[in-house]
């Protein structure tokens, strides 16, 4: 499986922006989301957003008509309230529904002869995230086996100094170690790496269902601080 960094969060004017994320294989689900919430609760700051994203690969290269039909099929009853756009190699739609903002992108990979669907949803609260997960998963599973990334975005209003960073990454590690179901035989693991100059901290969880990778970096120049907590997105071997 390939891994790519999927989240880059920027903090401006001493307002720390923190994102926690997990990626679940098809075996992952609500229990893993609840574990991510526990990790989030262990860290400082206030939650400002929840998001859910799935990637699916379609083996065929769709033409413009097929892209349009796939878009319509996916939107279903939401078609009338969606803003849509279709070209020869891309279809896009965005719409609001109860407690969610949705966006769908269908992109043709001309070189490799495949088509990729990316379905992103912003949700209003953790209960909504948990309740909607299976519905969202089932919706995109119709088109192929998805790999899902779930994100919690937090804001910390203040100076996120090195002491606070260390406190939060240790809290995240402890919470991950106690909430994720990790095989002690080494098939799964929770790893913790301390401070380095370029990359400050990692918390990693890896078992048969989920991966969690948190990175925190800072740049305190010109009264602007950047805090980046990112995770690799697991996608199928393209």
Automatic annotation (TrEMBL):
SUPFAM superfamilies, per database record: YwmB-like
Annotated signal peptide: 1-21
Annotated InterPro entries: DUF1779, YwmB-like_sf
UniProt keyword annotations, A-Z: Signal
Gene3D superfamilies linked: YwmB-like (3.30.360.40)
Protein name: YwmB family TATA-box binding protein
